[in-house]
Amino acid sequence: MSEILLYKAHLCISKLNKAAENVNDEITKLESTAEETFETINRSVQEITNAIERRRCELIETVKKLKNNKKKILADQLSIIESEKEKVEQQCSGLQYQVEVRNITNRISDLNKKLDSLNAIMEPRENAFLKYEHDHNSASNDIEKSLREFGRVRSSTTYPALCSASVECCSAHLETTVCITAYDYHGTVQSEGGDPVVIDLRYENGDSVKTHLIDRNNGTYDVNFLPEQPGNYKLNVTVFDRPIKDSPFHFVVSEHINPISQFGLRGSGDLHFLQPVGLVASSCGKLFVLDTGNSRIKVLTKDFKFLGHISDAGMEDRSGTGIALSLKNTLFIVNWRTKFITEVDFEGSVIQKFTHAEFVEPIDLAINSKGQIFVADNGAASVFAFEPSGTFVLKFGSTFNLISSIAIGPLDEIIVSDSRIQIFTSGGQFLREIVSEGKGKSRHGGIVYDGKGNLLATRSDKSGSFIQVFSYQSGNFLFSIDSHEAKLKRPSGLDVLNDFHVVVADLGNDCIKKFRYR
Fold this sequence. Notes:
Elements: H1 2-92, H2 101-117, H3 139-149, E1 164-167, E2 170-171, E3 176-181, E4 197-203, E5 211-215, E6 220-225, E7 231-239, E8 242-243, E9 249-254, E10 261-263, E11 265-266, E12 272-273, E13 276-281, E14 286-291, E15 296-301, E16 306-311, E17 320-325, E18 331-335, E19 341-344, E20 350-354, E21 362-367, E22 373-377, E23 382-386, E24 392-397, E25 405-408, E26 414-417, E27 421-424, E28 430-434, E29 443-449, E30 454-461, E31 464-471, E32 477-481, E33 491-497, E34 501-506, E35 511-516
Parallel strand pairs: 2-9, 11-12
Antiparallel strand pairs: 1-3, 3-6, 4-7, 5-6, 7-8, 7-9, 10-35, 13-14, 14-15, 15-16, 17-18, 18-19, 19-20, 21-22, 22-23, 23-24, 25-26, 26-27, 27-28, 29-30, 30-31, 31-32, 33-34, 34-35
């Protein structure tokens, strides 16, 4: 028993010695940082002193320039006076020997004129006025105020061993945030920021991952990073070169991307859909979902709150298959059965409708920056272009294989998808093809350009259904959204929100789903 007692006592003493060593190390660091702080204060104050000295020299130089200018003017005036004086003396020399009255009278007349002209140089042409002022404006008070506010000495009572970090669920290709909360020794959350938080994030192979630290100035800090690949990651967080609680953190970045929200069930009520095939998002914060099976458009907020319905117009016989938003904030609907394109306002009132004799099975449409309407016709295997008034412009294609959707690119290119993704000029000339990765035969249900360099397309093949994200310029495939925990079933139309969210109509599940894609 005595041996156990001695062993435990030895452990206690070892820990206490280690604690004393740690505290002494911190005292040494404190002395060092205090000296460094002294030096920094002296340097910054010297910079202010140097600035004041420069201003003093500028003011003195200004006085010297003014004095020299004034002095030069007065010296020039003295020269004139001396010159005039010499002239008078020359005129008067020998007058004591002058006896001719006429000559004397002329000299007196000349001197009278001279006396009158001398009045102009009697007064100094400059003055001796020079005055320094420092209270003519608020500069003096501003300097005093600025000096009172200049510099600050910060300290911190943050206790790293109690600081915490929370890591949210992570998916590859999506920006992730780790929230750090600072506490003091008593366990109280800090109310200010400024702590020297150091982040080191590494992939399982040791590669460093770029992070961005945001100080919220309220005792919390956000660490943002974008994991490029799934796998195991390790995050080290230190404050004052000491690890926070539970650091390092080990977490897994998933290869799956799941919806952040979902709306709809099969049915005909306010919260139901029956085969939703397309949707558009407006700049005023509304979503318009083409609920084909119910022959209506469901209007929602971007947070999926129900607002109302637009019924019937352009959606007869449950045959509305495409929807687009115009530059005038009106909706265009294409009906494959009636072969009509219908324009309605947000209240559902019909503005215009038109068709074309060569339409066979028009299934989708898109509108470019000029307001021109491009209609994809599956039966005619072609794309038709119309002016905003409905006037026919052109037709191109005939080589498409079951067109599914159409979209507009950043320079008004026409993007058409069937089993491929092809890009054409607004005049119908082929530009390039974007190769879609997948297994076996596939079909795209919807496609959209997000205005930020990304092209998103829904795709279904024998491996399942998902949303693919491409770089529009290079055409490179970036990643897929697989909706692993809420599988997509025949995803069709989709549209993006301005905060890197995409909403897709999940036709087979009679709902819509929202995902992050960055």
